[in-house]
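Hey everyone, long-time lurker, first post.

I ran two proteins through the pipeline my lab uses and got sequence/structure pairs for each. Pasting them in order. The first:
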Amino acid sequence: AEWTPVKHQQLKEKYIFLVRHAQSTWNREVDLMKTVRHQKLPEISVKDVLSSAAHIATREVWHRDHPISDEGVLQSQQLREKIRLASCDGPESFHEVDEEEMRSSDEEERIRRFYQHFLKSTDQSKSSTRPSIYCSPLLRALQTAHFALSDDDGWGSIKLL
């Protein structure tokens, strides 16, 4: 048997874009507990607050699927708007660079290409297929995907993992 070399094809870059869920009602409660912990309240001890919080946390975190909060809805809508604006203005408007952040031209090009691929994925004039959204079945993840990555904006259907 002879070995015949296979013609090498140029590898295509593939991108996976990850979006974390927006603030959930659970996240909001944890933030509230952190705030209360740092307050000086003479009638309530920190130990009492933390003990009650731990009891609630144990019950809530394991027995409930937490939806996104009002702030989470706003965060999702802001992401959707940011994507929409960047689709019109180009990838440079999507990624804000900190003035103190110094990058090489190669790094800047990699970031530009990343956002360009992300934005191109929703442009129906450049693709015949809509990008797929793979999502956790948790309510907070589904709500974030639904609000931020709308079918009206060119995104495909949500597929549960």
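...and the second, right after it:
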Amino acid sequence: AEGRHCLMTGDALFCGGQCGAPFEQCQGEDQRNLLTILRESGPKTLLFPGHEYTSRCLEVAYQGLLSRMEDTPGMAPGSVLALAAAYYASLHRRAHVSASERLPTVPISLEEERRLCSLMWEPLVRSAERLLVALVAREAVGEAERMEDPLDE
């Protein structure tokens, strides 16, 4: 990984779009961690999760996307095909019986992870963007009120 930024995500993000270990966090902490990773890390950053759950995470994501496709006629197949390819590639890499012959499915670049998980993360990212706009507006109002308060002089 010479010349590349690396991020050890531990349980905050697993390859395949799953966030956090639910038994170890407060509600909303997984979303906050994901948004921090997306905001602070560049697209070429290599992600190293704490566990090799890639195949399972991609299976869950793929099944969920297939269900959404059934409910959303006309959905572009590109995301489904990319997710299916990543899922089957991960199965192939982990298929060997002998542990010494299994290939790791990590690391993955943040750019590739975003491409695979864009449909899963889209609602979260949109909500976060709206929240950020509201927070900036609130800070601006607070700053304007402080500037107008004659008691501050």
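Reply from user beta_strand_b:
Welcome! Quick read of the second one: The two ends are 55 Å apart (CA to CA). The first strand starts at residue 6 and ends at 10.
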